[in-house]
């Protein structure tokens, strides 16, 4: 219906020479119709397992993603052999399974259920997961299946995390694993809660910030090679890193944008970050339209990036009292702008307001690149010699200890965070206000440039 309405408005615009706003309305309805059609195609499913809900079944399949290891349990995503259906398995920590293992499971098949205010079934549905088993009996049939490349990358990742744990004690080793390479066994539940209460959980979730650091390191290391060779290796490095980190929505978006940046440098064109952001989002939503609605990390990542593009420069100008040395003003501007921009969405989605978020971010973010650098050196040199990794591990440990100390100190304050939620209509109203403000800021900036 929306596609037909859009085409009708296009026709009225060209035949009857209507105003341009009719063309834009037609384009909106046409795009909306295509989006609904794509969502319907993605959501369409038919499987023989639908009739076995609540029954005990025995099924074999392959683990198609990196195991998500928690403190007391492990989550595995199984793709069945016959029905080619995904099942989420929640089981014991041991025995340990790996990506590519072919296993046989026996348990009660069930549909995911909502808990509290979180729509767990919808969150899983974005990855085409409609069934789960809780603590099934799992038996290994055959190892080393799946993609050979992904299996090797996950193996390198596990070894890297193991290298860190050999030279750095917990919880710092887990924190560095999450910070540098997105280790899913990264931090304890209590430590994660402290990061949430202080509004700095984004530090241990791989983002454009982390991926940009990786790209720059690769480019610097390949400076002596021909320019296009360096660009090629840079893009390959980003691709491998994204796969090894698990290819989450945030990492994929950041990797696409970083790849565009490298290509822009290779062709000598100006890198338009806004276009790159929109193209990255379009490609990801085209591939899986459900992430636009159900993937909170994807939504937060885009909001934070928009804040950095449009809001941060204006905020930075207001911080003239902060010195530029060591990029302090830049870090403060980026931190304040992203915190303001994602704040309403966080209240709507998570219902937790961190009073200490801003000071904690300012105290920690400046040291994060240094911590990542020495963490990478410690984990990387561990492949060669544990002895070589020790001094760099100590340096990384010193910085990580400071960051964890700040997080723990502020999280224990009685007023650090409190629960509060806002309805969707109010969230939408606030972002409309943000859009008006950004439009005014850009208009004033353009007017100032025209006067010059």
Question: Could you explain the architecture of this structure?
Answer:
There is one protein chain. The chain has 17 helices and nine strands. The chain is an alpha+beta fold and 452 residues long. Among the domains are: 2-43; 52-146, OB fold (Dihydrolipoamide Acetyltransferase, E2P). The strands form two sheets. Strands 1, 2, 3, 4, 5, 6 and 7 form a seven-stranded mixed β-sheet that branches. A two-stranded antiparallel sheet has the order 8-9. The N and C termini lie far apart (49 Å). The model has no long low-confidence stretch (mean pLDDT 76).
Quick overview of this protein structure:
The protein has 452 residues and is an alpha+beta fold. It is built from 17 helices and 9 strands. A hairpin with a 4-residue loop joins strand 2 (68-69) and strand 3 (74-80).
Query: What's the rounded overall pLDDT mean?
Result: 76
Radius of gyration (Å): 24 Å
CATH class call of the domain at 52-146? Mainly Beta
Which of globular, elongated, flat, extended, rod-shaped describes the shape? globular
The computed structural class is alpha+beta
Low-confidence stretches: none
Count the strands?
9
Label the CATH architecture of the domain at 52-146. Beta Barrel
Q: Per DSSP, what share of the residues sits in E-state strands of 2 or more residues? A: 5-15%
What is the name of the CATH superfamily of the domain at 52-146? Nucleic acid-binding proteins
Number of helices: 17
Largest sheet: 7 strands, mixed
Helix content: 55-70%
Name the helix and strand elements from N-terminus to C-terminus, one letter apiece: HHEEEEEHEEHHHHHHHHHHEHHHEH
Give me the CATH fold name of the domain at 52-146.
OB fold (Dihydrolipoamide Acetyltransferase, E2P)
Measured between the Cα atoms of the first and last residue, the distance is: 49 Å
